[in-house]
Design goal:
The chain is mainly α and 475 residues long. It has 21 helices and four strands. The radius of gyration is 27 Å and the shape is elongated.
């Protein structure tokens, strides 16, 4: 019965260009039951119910998305603009599913698309998905059927079937504290999730090793460079090579690679637990709560592995023969400075998580959605080059915001061997740096840090894809 009602309501609104605004007017008039020229949540909810759309909160989300003047209603212009934008997203998703470009989606195409996303569905389940959208009984879905099924669903509900817009944050570039990637129930039950994490950890290890000289130069400049001791790229590399040879460029990289696995595992496990605490049973977690959960998970992981961060800084800055290795370094720090030395710089490190993760995520989503709005033609998948570009720019913006805190953290880690009376606090160190070197002194070493972003992301992606193939999670 509801299919008939839906078809009668939607059949006249098949196209969204300017010449067919009358069709939108008809749909709007039917939803506007009190004829006041506006559609509120109650009216939209009643209309959705009449069409058999019972998604909890759908009406509120549609109104919130389209309500440009924040008056709690949708007038005709707002309603039309929302539908146009929504249909554009629906068409991109439809074309992404239509693998053979015949204008129809069949069960095998649904199976293939979901399999590539790590979601294995049976033929029977694929047919059930088709049946829920099929109006003419052909067991194939054309654009009009797809459109009529999803036109008055909020766009994000499509992610249950299609997750092309997913940002893979398992691609580690050393400084990333972004929100962890999420896994579906199918991925969790099949074990694919741990393979993806393993692939991400290996990608991060190779990426960090490949860019370790730039990372060491960054730390070297953060600690030793000043107005009176200017260190440039070539001069910094020359100093390190003269002091310890070519292999010294990789000092500290061993522990930097070793901490990837525990940090990744703790972050993802903590993220799952924080999501459960912040969301209601059976309800989807909102974006702001997901961000809070991600930041808290990052803080938890950093707290657990922070002693390794201190060891990495000390090993990176060590002189030839100063430490016999990682365990010797840890033993000497513990004996001379005590346990507290392993948490020097912890507060600025923790504070840096919020601006980095927030700006990185916000810039990434903005860039990706802007590209999709202006340039996407045949697919809702932006492609790896676009995602890498968005990720590189968003990571750069996040680092710009959090870099002064990262510099203070590194200085505090390096100066932990000083007497307690000589050890500066975070605020006094910030004041000292600005007083001696000016505002830009807070950005010492940022050039090699930026230089490593593109090669780090590129290496990480290539290794990640090869690892996924090797582990059997992609074709």
């Amino acid at each position: 019965m509801y299919q008939t009602l839906r078809t009668s309501l939607l059949s006249s609104a098949r196209c969204w260009d300017a010449t067919n605004e009358r069709s939108y007017q008809d749909l709007f008039d039917r939803l506007d039951t009190n004829k006041d020229g506006k559609v509120d949540v109650a009216e939209l909810r009643a209309g959705l119910k009449a069409m058999g759309i019972f998604r909890h909160g759908a009406a509120q989300k549609i109104v919130s998305s389209g309500d440009q003047n924040n008056d709690g209603f949708l007038d005709f212009n707002e309603f039309t603009k929302y539908l146009k934008e929504h249909e554009k997203k629906l068409l991109l998703t439809f074309k992404s599913l239509d693998r053979n470009n015949d204008g129809r989606i069949d069960a095998s195409e649904i199976q293939q698309s979901l399999a590539e996303l790590g979601m294995d569905v049976s033929k029977e389940d694929a047919l059930k998905i088709l049946q829920s959208m099929d109006i003419d009984g052909t067991m194939m879905v054309d654009w009009n059927e797809w459109r009529e099924h999803f036109l008055l669903y909020p766009a994000h509900n499509l992610e249950e079937i299609i997750r092309y817009w997913k940002h893979s944050s398992v691609l580690d570039i050393g400084d990333s504290l972004a929100i962890p990637d999420e896994f579906t129930d199918e991925e969790k039950s099949s074990g694919i999730w741990w393979k993806q994490l393993a692939a991400g950890a290996m990608a991060g290890a190779v990426s960090r090793t490949g860019t370790a000289p730039l990372d060491r130069l960054k730390v070297f400049m953060q600690v030793h460079s000043s107005k009176t001791n200017q260190i440039n790229l070539i001069g910094g590399f020359r100093q390190m090579i003269v002091e310890g040879g070519l292999s010294s460029l990789w000092r500290g990289n061993g522990i930097n690679v070793l901490k990837i696995a525990p940090e990744t595992a703790i972050k993802f496990m903590a993220y799952e637990q924080y999501k459960k605490l912040l969301s209601s049973e059976g309800k989807k977690i909102e974006t702001h709560k997901r961000f809070i959960a991600g930041s808290m998970a990052g803080a938890t992981a950093q707290t657990a592995i922070y002693p390794m961060e201190v060891l990495k800084t000390r090993l990176t800055l060590r002189k030839t023969g100063q430490y016999a290795g990682m365990f010797d370094c840890a033993k000497k720090i513990l004996r001379k400075e005590g346990v507290i030395a392993f948490y020097k710089g912890y507060i600025p490190n923790l504070l840096g998580i919020i601006p980095y993760a927030g700006i990185d995520l916000a810039v990434y989503e903005t860039l990706k959605n802007t590209w999709l709005s202006y340039y996407a033609k045949d697919s809702a998948n932006p492609g790896i080059l676009v995602l890498l570009g968005c990720g590189t720019i968003s990571s750069t913006c996040g680092q710009l915001a959090s870099y002064p805190l990262a510099l203070v953290r590194t200085r505090m880690q390096a100066q932990a061997s000083l007497d307690a009376s000589d050890q500066p606090s975070m605020s006094s160190l910030l004041r000292t740096i600005v007083a001696k070197d000016g505002f830009f002194g807070l950005y010492r070493g940022i050039l090699p840090n930026f230089m490593k972003v593109i090669p780090a992301v590129s290496i990480s992606y290539v290794v990640y894809e090869y690892m996924k193939t090797g582990l059997g999670i992609s074709k």
